[in-house]
């Protein structure tokens, strides 16, 4: 059986194959007896016939079957769905072309449409949408009983058009309305900065597109004599599996990175590290939060299992399943979960997520304003000189280098401060 495989762990999709023939062979793998299967199909036929005959509104059999398939798929899991003509077309637009969007990844959590994460630099991110936000309405449409595909379809639109999301946010007493202007989503997936005075490389990966491994390689080769690496995967919704595997492979030189296991043993795959691709063994810290999903969870969880990095932040989203697209005909298809991803230790990510080694909630670093002390006997003689020194120091700090994370930046991010401290501890004993 051929199918279109979603080589994805988040918002990026790649179609591998394009055809399928559905027939009675679909039922051949069932453990049920032939008579049980026939009885079940006969019951379904009677139900369809009854609805067609007695339902209050005139409804044709095609509509009944489509609704029943839609209901079946949505009840399997949060990521399986029925793609009708419109949904299948939208999928192709998403995978093959540019479209106007918001820049958020959404998922179903406890039956509600939830923001996995806003993608850095996109309209949703700039408008203030946050990971964990529950979307109640898209414009005036309620999201109750709305599928993910329907929600994405409503949120997508022409660039420069307006959309209003009504959301519920933890800590807010009433729903918030956020106005967003759609735009073409273009993402800078990897960028680097140096931590001021620390010789630590800050590596930010916002999503796993096809350039992540190459851009990370370039950054590591450019900064060879660093004391440590902070890999920031916060609010990273995922992307291409091969990029997640390739990223881990830059830091781990042996062992399983991640494995894929499904009902069909043919879908079982192990992805392993190779020695010749490993570029560095310097201490690492990885930052994650509730917006880190899929590929981000594979990377952070694998590095954690290999004891290659300290994971810092809050528990990740918990999306570790594999979906494929199974076309029914030229215009309709099923998006079906066929496997789960497992970390090197054998633990699953799905609905569990990755628990950091060090739990640190987002916030600022508690601190006092810098003080200076002058001995009493030097007060009159040196006060002016000391004040001038402090003024000069302030002037230096105020000069912002876009390629450097300043001490002021660190004070505004306690998770980042914790990662820097972790690198310092891990570096003890490694320094000559």
Report a brief summary of the structure:
The chain is an alpha+beta fold and 432 residues long. The protein is 31% helix and 23% strand.
Poorly predicted regions: 1-28, 394-398
CATH topology of the largest domain: 2-enoyl-CoA Hydratase, Chain A, domain 1
Number of helices: 11
Q: What structural class is derived from the secondary structure elements?
A: alpha+beta
Mean pLDDT: 84
By CATH, the architecture of the largest domain is named Alpha-Beta Complex
Strand content range: 15-25%
Radius of gyration: 26 Å
Q: Percent of residues in helical segments? A: 25-40%
What gap, in angstroms, lies between the N and C termini?
A: 58 Å
Shape label: globular
CATH homologous superfamily caption of the largest domain: 2-enoyl-CoA Hydratase, Chain A, domain 1
Main beta-sheet annotation: 7 strands, mixed
Total domain units: 3
Question: Would you mind describing this structure in some detail?
Answer:
This protein is an alpha+beta fold and 432 residues long. The protein has three domains: 1-30 and 77-81 and 186-363 and 413-432, 2-enoyl-CoA Hydratase, Chain A, domain 1 (Alpha-Beta Complex), CATH 3.90.226; 100-184, PDZ domain (Pdz3 Domain), CATH 2.30.42; 368-402. The chain is 31% helix and 23% strand. It has eleven helices and 21 strands. It has helices at residues 34-54, 61-76, 85-96, 123-127, 148-155, 212-222, 241-249, 295-305, 379-398, 407-411, 414-427; strands at 4-5, 81-83, 100-101, 104-109, 112-118, 134-138, 141-142, 162-168, 176-181, 183-184, 190-195, 200-205, 228-232, 256-262, 269-272, 284-288, 310-313, 321-327, 333-342, 358-359, 404-405. The chain has a seven-stranded mixed β-sheet, with helices on both faces. Strands 1, 2, 14, 15, 18 and 19 form a six-stranded antiparallel β-sheet that branches. It has a four-stranded antiparallel β-sheet with strand order 7-6-8-9. Helix 7 (241-249) packs parallel to helix 8 (295-305). The chain is globular and about 75 Å long.
């Amino acid at each position: 059986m051929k199918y279109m495989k979603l080589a994805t762990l988040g918002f990026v999709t790649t179609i591998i194959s394009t055809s399928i023939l559905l027939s009675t062979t679909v039922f051949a793998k069932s453990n049920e007896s032939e008579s049980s299967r026939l009885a079940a199909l006969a019951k379904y036929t009677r139900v369809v016939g009854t609805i067609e005959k007695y339902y209050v509104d005139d409804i044709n059999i095609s509509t009944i079957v489509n609704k029943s398939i839609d209901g079946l798929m949505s009840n399997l899991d949060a990521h399986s769905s029925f793609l009708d003509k419109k949904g299948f077309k939208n999928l192709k637009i998403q995978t093959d072309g540019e479209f106007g969007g918001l820049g958020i990844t959404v998922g179903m959590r406890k039956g509600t449409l939830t923001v996995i994460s806003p993608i850095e630099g996109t309209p949703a991110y700039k408008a203030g949408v946050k990971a964990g936000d529950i979307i109640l309405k898209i414009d005036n449409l309620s999201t109750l009983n709305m599928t993910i595909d329907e929600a994405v379809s409503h949120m997508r639109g022409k660039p420069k058009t307006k959309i209003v999301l009504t959301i519920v946010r933890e800590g807010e007493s009433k729903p918030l309305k956020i106005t967003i202007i759609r735009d073409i989503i273009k993402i800078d997936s990897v960028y680097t900065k140096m931590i001021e005075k620390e010789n630590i490389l800050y590596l930010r990966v916002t999503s796993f597109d096809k350039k992540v491994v190459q851009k990370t390689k370039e950054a590591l080769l450019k900064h060879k004599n660093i004391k440590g690496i902070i890999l920031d995967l916060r609010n990273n919704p995922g992307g291409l599996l091969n990029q997640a595997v390739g990223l881990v492979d830059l830091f781990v030189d042996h062992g399983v990175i991640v494995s894929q296991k499904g009902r069909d043993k043919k879908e079982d795959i192990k992805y392993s590290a190779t020695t010749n691709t490993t570029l560095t063994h310097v201490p690492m810290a990885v930052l994650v939060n509730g917006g880190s999903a899929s590929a981000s969870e594979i990377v952070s969880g694998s590095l954690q299992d290999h004891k290659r990095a300290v994971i810092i932040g809050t528990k990740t989203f918990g999306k570790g399943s594999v979906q494929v697209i199974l076309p029914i005909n030229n215009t309709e298809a099923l998006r079906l979960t066929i496997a789960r991803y497992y970390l090197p230790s054998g633990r699953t990510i799905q609905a569990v997520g990755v628990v950091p080694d060090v739990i640190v909630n987002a916030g600022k670093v508690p601190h006092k304003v810098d003080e200076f002390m002058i001995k009493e006997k030097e007060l009159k003689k040196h006060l002016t000189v000391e004040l001038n020194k402090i003024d000069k120091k302030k002037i230096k700090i105020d000069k912002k280098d876009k390629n450097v994370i300043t001490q002021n930046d660190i004070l505004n991010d306690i998770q980042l401060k914790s990662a820097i401290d972790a690198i310092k501890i891990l570096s003890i004993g490694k320094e000559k």
